[in-house]
Write a structure and sequence with these properties.
Layout (H helix, E strand, L loop, with lengths): L3 H20 L4 H9 L3 H33 L1 H21 L3 H14 L2 H11 L6 H26 L6 H20 L19 H9 L5 H14 L1 H14 L3 H21 L1 H30 L3 H11 L5 H11 L6 H31 L10 H19 L7
Length: about 400
């Protein structure tokens, strides 16, 4: 079973990754206005640019860092990324121009690929049967960070727009120090793979891994799943405001409820589900729950009922770690870092595509002149994507040998 201290460091790393995104969100509008001298509308435009460049950097550099970790080891990639991340937050805390903040988000997007390396580390230290549970633990860490980040950022904002950046820098630096003491290298000479530039970019890695038996369709399912579930951060504030007139406080409560339940599901329900149902059935269960949740969100008319059902939506989270577990078991041990880098790139690509798709759908069905007033239309798009995922997953072949 997992070694406790290294797993704790990995968990803290993922929590910090997730917190680092949410920690600075509460202060970004005021900070951007201070740096540009513009109004809130201009700040929103810059906020979108900063979010997009962050996702683009993750997409481009996920496979690169994954391949580096397959060649030089997980430990140095994790530690160097954490140190650079800490320094980058210091730069953003001191930024006196919007372009310096932009540069900071570029670097932050690159170093945030530690999430993929953390997953590869967990794959290294777990047996094939433990992989899905290991990925669930990492997912739980992300859920915890998702909840804590905005809350802590809001509290620290009382001390100024730069305070959350200093806090993030300190957390990343302390975790790098802890990792230096605790983490042991998991890549051995037997599993080390030579670094290849052709496999260190998203397209090259996708081509190489997609040619492995019974992997290509699973990568497609993973990508469609990420696009579908990205509907939550893309339209949730706009949807709940339009449909139910929720205040920012109520929106925050609903997101915290989702994040808390998400963390509990990923941390405590993955292993029992795998044990009783197996990986494939668990994936089907997760996709089915997501489908039912999206249909419900497409047509629900009561904000109270929606709030009561928010924790239920998180039960669909059992599917993704099980899918990651299947993928990890079908990939050679010397390519685990590359796999997680590819998955990180696919996730980032989904976060680039989904906001455009979902917000445009929302605007089309909720604005003036809408053919049908249906603010929940983006969730129905996601429901269709879930049906597509189930169909493709059902056609994915099992490998001839374990």
């Amino acid at each position: 079973m997992f070694t406790r201290l290294p797993v704790l460091v990995i968990l803290i790393t993922v929590v910090i990754d997730a917190m680092g995104i949410g920690l600075i969100l509460p202060v970004m509008p005021d900070l951007i206005r201070d740096l540009t001298g513009g109004d809130l509308a201009e700040a929103a435009v810059w906020g979108g640019v900063l979010s997009t460049v962050f996702a683009v950097m993750q997409f481009l550099f996920g496979p690169f860092l994954g391949s580096l970790s397959d060649r030089y080891g997980r430990r140095p990639v994790l530690l160097v990324s954490l140190v650079i991340m800490s320094a980058d937050y210091v730069v953003m805390a001191l930024a006196d121009t919007i372009w310096l903040l932009f540069l900071g988000r570029v670097v932050a997007g690159i170093t945030a690929a530690t999430y993929a390396t953390a997953l590869a580390y967990m794959a290294d230290i777990s047996t094939p049967k433990e992989k899905a549970a290991a990925f669930g633990i990492v997912g739980a860490g992300f859920g915890i960070g998702f909840v804590l980040g905005p809350v802590l950022g809001g509290v620290l904002a009382e001390f100024g727009t730069r305070a959350p950046f200093w806090a993030a820098a300190g957390l990343a630096g302390l975790n790098a120090l802890l990792g230096w003491v605790v983490l042991k290298e998991t890549v051995t000479d037997a599993t080390r793979r030579a670094f290849q530039w052709s496999r260190s970019n998203p397209l090259g890695s996708l081509r190489a891994l997609g040619q492995l038996p019974a992997v290509g369709k699973l990568l497609i399912v993973f990508f469609i799943y990420q696009v579908a579930t990205a509907v939550y951060p893309a339209v949730w504030p706009y949807y709940t405001t339009e449909r139910f007139g929720w205040s920012p406080g109520m929106i925050g409560v609903s997101l915290a409820a989702y994040g808390t339940t998400f963390a509990l599901v990923q941390g405590f329900l993955i292993a029992p589900s795998i044990r009783y149902f197996g990986n494939r059935i668990t994936v089907i269960i997760g996709l089915s729950v997501e489908f039912a949740s999206f249909i419900f969100l497409g047509f629900v008319s009561s904000g109270t009922l929606l709030l009561a059902m928010v924790p239920v939506f998180a039960f669909g989270a059992v599917g993704l770690p099980a899918l990651q577990g299947i993928l990890s078991r079908r990939i050679p041990d010397d390519s685990q870092g590359e796999l997680q880098g590819v998955l990180a790139s696919l996730t980032s690509l989904a976060t680039i595509i989904a906001p455009l798709l979902m917000t445009q759908t929302f605007a089309h069905f909720s604005g003036e002149g809408a053919p049908v007033y249906l603010p929940g239309a983006p969730f129905l798009v996601s429901a269709f994507l879930m049906v597509l995922s189930v169909a493709i997953f059902a056609r994915s072949k099992r490998p001839a040998t374990p």
